[in-house]
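Internal tracking record. Fields below are filled automatically when a chain is submitted to the structure queue. Please do not edit lines marked as system-generated. If the sequence contains nonstandard residues, flag them in the REMARKS field before resubmitting.
Queue: standard
Priority: normal
Entity type: single polypeptide chain
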Amino acid sequence: MMPINHHLDPLERSGIRVFTNLAKATPDCRMLTIGEPDQATPEPIRQAALEALSRGETHYAPNQGTASLRAAIAATGYTAGEIRAAPYEKKGLFSFLKK
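SYSTEM-GENERATED OUTPUT FOLLOWS
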C-alpha cells in the first residue's frame, strides 16, 4: 500500500465516505450517497454518449433535462406536470418530494 503523507493524519474522514462505507456494509441498503453505479452501463447508453461527444455535447445539461429528453418522456404519455428530470437521483428525489 502507498504510504500516506503524515500531514494528512489529523484530518477526519469525510462524513459522506463514512456514511457510504456504512451503507455498503448494510445488506439490502440502497445507496444514494455517491453517484457510482453498481452495474455496467448498457451498450445503447454508451453508444449514445459517444455520439453526443462527437457532436460536441461536452457540457452539463440543464437541471430540468434537455428539451429532447423532456420531449421523449412526454411522448410516453406523461403530462408536463408529471415529468421530473434530474441530473442524479438525490436531486430527483428532493425535487419530487418537496412538491
